[in-house]
């Protein structure tokens, strides 16, 4: 379970999180949605134990982040928006490194790597330098490395960016399996149709605040919109801006 209470975060003089609160139950996929600069990635990094200087209370898997961020990192599988990999290593070397840091027994690590590498079809890249690989392949490596220690919590920041349709579908099905196993999952994406398909509940963050939260159907009913995309654009005040931009483009073209 994840509990966030009155979370605030400043970078210099700018407050990027302004007292947000939400919970994610065991066996739940929670979508954290918002425009660029809204505070999504900062929230994800706090949930993952990477950022520890904040105000408020954040508990992940029963562990308070501010008090024991190392333990949080042990139980969380985190996929950042941009893959954070050692590009001078091969995928085989990188997975071995991650397994060593995580203390995963060699036989268990080898079996998990084998299954995930086959599932995401990167076997032919295992001995190539990561720095030479495509963004999509790097994203697969990032996903695989986040799952090797069988985390009880998953923090996924645009985790499907760059994935081919087959790999995206495989990962989506894995998320459903993880949900059934009781894992808590926070999922961020700009592809709102995907969030509508995957998430049990969503929170919409805008200018550092959670401005709406509930199931997709609840948010549709509140906003009187038929699609999550339209709900999002309406609540983040982007719908009128889009109409104005399109109108101006029509005149210019």
UniProtKB/TrEMBL annotation:
InterPro entries recorded: AAA+_ATPase, ABC_transporter-like_ATP-bd, ABC_Transporter_VariousFunc, P-loop_NTPase
What SUPFAM superfamilies does its record include? P-loop containing nucleoside triphosphate hydrolases
Q: What GO molecular function annotations does the UniProt record carry, in alphabetical order?
A: ATP binding; ATP hydrolysis activity
In this chain the ABC transporter domain maps to 2-232
Question: Which terms are listed as keywords in the entry?
Answer: ATP-binding, Nucleotide-binding, Transport
Q: Which residues form a coiled coil?
A: none
Biological classification of the source: Archaea, Methanobacteriati, Methanobacteriota, Thermococci, Thermococcales
Instruction: Name the source's superkingdom.
Output: Archaea
Q: Which PANTHER family match?
A: ABC TRANSPORTER ATP-BINDING PROTEIN ALBC-RELATED
Protein name in UniProt: ABC transporter, ATP-binding protein
């Amino acid at each position: 379970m994840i509990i966030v209470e009155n979370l605030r975060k400043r970078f210099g003089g700018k407050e990027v999180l302004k007292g947000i609160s939400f919970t994610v139950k065991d066996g739940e996929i929670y979508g954290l949605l918002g425009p660029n600069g809204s505070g999504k990635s900062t929230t994800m990094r706090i949930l993952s134990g990477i950022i520890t200087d904040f105000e408020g209370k954040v508990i992940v898997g029963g562990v308070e982040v501010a008090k024991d961020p190392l333990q949080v990192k042990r139980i969380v599988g985190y996929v950042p928006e941009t893959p954070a990999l050692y590009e001078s290593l091969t995928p085989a070397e990188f997975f071995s490194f991650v397994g060593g840091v995580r203390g995963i027994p060699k036989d268990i690590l080898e079996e998990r790597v084998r299954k995930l590498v086959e599932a995401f079809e990167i076997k032919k890249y295992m001995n190539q330098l990561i720095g030479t690989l495509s963004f999509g392949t790097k994203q697969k490596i990032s996903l695989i490395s986040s799952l090797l220690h069988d985390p009880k919590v998953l923090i996924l920041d645009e985790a499907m960016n760059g994935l081919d349709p087959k790999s995206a579908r495989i990962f989506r099905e894995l998320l459903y399996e993880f949900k059934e196993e009781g894992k808590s999952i926070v999922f961020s994406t700009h592809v709102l149709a995907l969030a509508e398909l995957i998430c049990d509940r969503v929170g919409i963050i805008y200018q550092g605040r959670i401005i709406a939260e509930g199931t997709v159907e609840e948010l549709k009913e509140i906003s009187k919109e038929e699609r999550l995309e339209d709900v999002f654009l309406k609540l983040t005040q982007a719908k009128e801006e889009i109409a104005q931009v399109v109108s101006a483009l029509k005149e210019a073209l």
